[in-house]
Structure formats: C-alpha cells, structure tokens
C-alpha cells in the first residue's frame, strides 16, 4: 500500500530548519515538484547529494520526499541516489534492506541494469558483514544478467568492485587481480581519493606477486594506479613488480629486506623465489634471438642462480604454465625453446629487441647479397 506523503509540509519544515547553504535547495525542490519537472528535479537532487553537510538529511529526504516521485526518475539515477543514501545507515542490515527494496522496484526487463546495480550494492554491505555466500550468489545471478545486455559504466563499476572485494576476502589473487583492473577501467582515477588509489595499488601489487597464474604484469605496470605508490612506505612494491617483470634476481634479493613489512609475502617466500626464477628464465630466452634459443642447463642455472640439478624441474614448470614452448633433452642437458609468452617491455628491453631486429635485418641483407651473387640470373633489377 502506497503511503500518502505530505511533501509540502516536509519541504517547508526543511526550509526553516536546514543549514543556511541548503535552504535554497528546498525552495527549488518545491517549485520543481509542483511543476512536475522530474528531470530538472533529479538534477537538483544530484547537486544536493554533493553538499558536504547534506549527509544527515539524506535518509529522511528520501523517505519523505524522493519516495513520492521515485517512479518518475530514470531507474539508474534512482539507484545512484539510493547508493548515496544507503551509506548513511549506521546498521549495514538496514542499508541492505533499503537497497533490496529499491532493487525490487526496478526488477523489470526494461530496468534490468538498475536492478543489477542495486543488488550488487546490497552485496557490498553483505560482504562487509562477512556473508560471503550471499554475496557470491548475487555475483553469479548478476553476471548472468549482464552477459545478455549492454551495460552502463556505473553498473559495471558496482559489479567489478564487489567481485574484486569478494575475491580479496577469499585470497583468490588471480581473480582479484582481474576484477580489480576491470573496476579501475570503469572511470577516471581522479574520481577516487588518493587513499583509495593507494590501497588499490597496494592490493593489486600483492595479488600480482602472489597470483600463481600471473606472470605477465603488463596491464598493471602500464596503469597509472601504480604511480600512487610513489613516495609512500609501499613504494618498494612498485620496484619489486618491475624487478619481477625483468627477471632481475639481484634486485629481488635486495628488496626482500622489506618483506617483514608484508607478512603475506614473507609467508610465501618459497613461491616468490620460484616465480622470480621463472621470470629470469623468460628473460633469458627473450633476450636471445630466435636462432639462439637452445640453452644448456648450465646456462639456465647461471641466469636463474639455481643449482644445475634444479633446472629441469624449473623448465618443466615453465612449460606447464605455458610460459614457454619447447623440448627438454635430458641426456644432453639442453632446452630448445620455440616460443616465449608475450610480456610488458621496459625501455631497455625494447632497445634489446630493436638490436635483435637490426641484427636480423643485416643477416637477411647479407644472405640476399650472397644468393644474388651466386645466381644473378634469378634476379631482375627494376629500372
């Protein structure tokens, strides 16, 4: 049953009692409401939400004013307003109930995106209460809906934020890494506070290092989010990522002195040592031209700083992870590598590739000259 709201009395009350800077809003609210100018009224409401001292008024504003004309609002804008209002509830269960009530009001085929956003924002509060099962159920349900329709950026942002926070809680580093980057792709970084940017960069760095399937850091290394770690106590994490990307074991050893500050890294030291050795192997292959990728176990041992007897196991690990493709000759202690996983290149690596290309060009030109000299009749020179 719909409640008949006394909107004029409420607005008059707020005109008299609201802070001075907010009183003009209630005058405009009344005028636009009386004239049923819903689009303009929505825009005025959005401006009101941005006022720093409006927060204590938002719950009663919604209950006694917005609820009267919410059906006239664009559904996505209604949910956006509800998200701001929900943040004012001190009890997370109240916020969940409020958002799920909104979700039920936009649970129609033509407003499916708004419904998904409201459900995912409620899932955000469920996650805060430790209700991982309900959160995962919401994720699965909403993902199925999103796959079948074009999605607004705000809806994607809600979905990926909750997914990344869920996978962080589950310590699922690869999935957190993927969804956290997708979340950041939804808006301008400047829309996030510096503290949030630093937290996200820190968490992404940890997940990149500890992810057992993450050996290509290109999406993160090229993302401006990492710059937020500069000149902070976590700046060494950025350096560590670049050390891994370059397979620089020496720099890795130097930076391990910081691991005491990060219990997760300290606890996973054996895994991280294997990972840096794998990255060193990739780098050793990459810096050699294709015709010189026949490496002896002793060469790999030198590059990875491992005993020769551990090289075969490391190489098999690299093959199983599809970091390289090739064959192991156990008898002669040789690895023949045909392919290495594409990766993010720093400037010195690009310079090395350029040198390889120039060497290849000189080789081709030399071979062409030899063939031309040996069989000139096969070549016809143009004018």
How do the helices and strands line up, and which of them pair or pack?
Blueprint: H1 7-17, H2 23-34, H3 38-49, H4 58-69, H5 75-86, H6 92-105, H7 112-128, H8 132-146, H9 153-169, H10 173-184, H11 194-210, H12 218-221, H13 235-246, H14 249-255, H15 263-267, H16 269-286, E1 294-296, H17 297-304, H18 311-320, E2 324-329, E3 334-340, H19 347-374
Antiparallel strand pairs: 1-3, 2-3
Kindly summarize this structure in a few lines.
The chain has 19 helices and three strands.
Q: Level of helix content?
A: 55-70%
Total beta strand runs? 3
Q: Which parts are unreliable, with pLDDT below 50 for 5 consecutive residues or more?
A: none
Structural class: mainly alpha
- Multimeric state: single chain
Distance between the termini: 91 Å
Spatial ordering of strands, largest sheet = 1-3-2
| Largest sheet descriptor | 3 strands, antiparallel
Kindly describe this structure:
The protein has 383 residues and is mainly alpha-helical. It folds into three domains: 1-102; 166-267, no CATH class; 276-363, Arc Repressor Mutant, subunit A. The chain is built from 19 helices and three strands. A three-stranded antiparallel sheet has the order 1-3-2. Strand 2 (324-329) and strand 3 form a beta hairpin. Helix 2 packs antiparallel against helix 3. The longest helix has 28 residues, at 347-374. It is elongated, with a radius of gyration of 30 Å. It starts with 6 loop residues before the first helix and ends in a 9-residue tail after the last helix. One of its GO terms (molecular function) is structural molecule activity. Belongs to the proteasome subunit S11 family. It comes from Syncephalis pseudoplumigaleata. InterPro entries: PCI_dom, PSD13_N, PSMD13, WH_DNA-bd_sf.
């Amino acid at each position: 049953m719909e409640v008949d709201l006394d909107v004029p009395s409420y607005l008059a009350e707020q005109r008299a009692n609201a802070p001075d800077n907010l009183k003009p809003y209630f005058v405009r609210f009344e005028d636009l409401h009386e004239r049923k100018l819903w689009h303009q009224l929505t825009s005025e409401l959005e401006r009101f939400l941005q006022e720093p001292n409006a927060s204590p008024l938002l719950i009663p504003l919604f209950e006694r004013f917005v609820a009267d004309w919410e059906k006239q609002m664009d559904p996505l804008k209604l949910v956006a307003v509800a998200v701001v209002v929900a943040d004012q509830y001190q009890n997370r269960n109240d916020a969940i109930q409020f958002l799920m009530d909104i979700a039920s009001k936009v649970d129609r085929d033509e407003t499916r995106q708004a419904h998904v956003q409201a459900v995912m924002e409620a899932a955000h509060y469920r996650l805060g209460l430790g209700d991982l099962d309900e959160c995962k159920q919401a994720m699965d349900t909403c993902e199925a809906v999103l796959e079948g329709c074009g999605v607004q950026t705000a809806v994607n942002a809600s979905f990926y934020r909750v997914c990344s926070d869920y996978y962080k809680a589950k310590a699922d580093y690869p999935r957190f890494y993927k969804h956290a980057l997708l979340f950041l792709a939804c808006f301008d970084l400047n829309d996030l506070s510096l503290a949030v940017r630093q937290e996200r960069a820190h968490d992404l760095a940890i997940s990149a290092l500890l992810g057992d399937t993450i050996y290509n850091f290109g999406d993160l290394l090229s993302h401006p989010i990492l710059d937020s770690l500069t000149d902070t106590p976590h700046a060494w994490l950025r350096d560590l990522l670049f050390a891994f990307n370059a397979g620089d074991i020496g720099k890795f050893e130097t930076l391990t002195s910081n691991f005491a500050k990060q219990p997760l890294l300290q606890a996973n030291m054996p895994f991280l040592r294997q990972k840096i050795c794998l990255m060193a192997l990739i780098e050793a292959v990459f810096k050699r031209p294709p015709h010189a990728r026949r490496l002896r176990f002793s060469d790999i041992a030198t590059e990875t700083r491992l005993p020769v007897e551990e090289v075969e196991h490391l190489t098999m690990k690299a093959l199983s992870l599809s970091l390289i493709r090739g064959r192991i000759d156990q008898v002669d202690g040789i690895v023949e590598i045909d392919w290495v996983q594409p990766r993010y290149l720093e400037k010195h690596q690009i310079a090395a590739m350029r040198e390889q290309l120039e060497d290849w060009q000189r080789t081709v030109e030399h071979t062409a000259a030899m063939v031309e000299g040996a069989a000139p009749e096969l070549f016809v020179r143009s004018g």
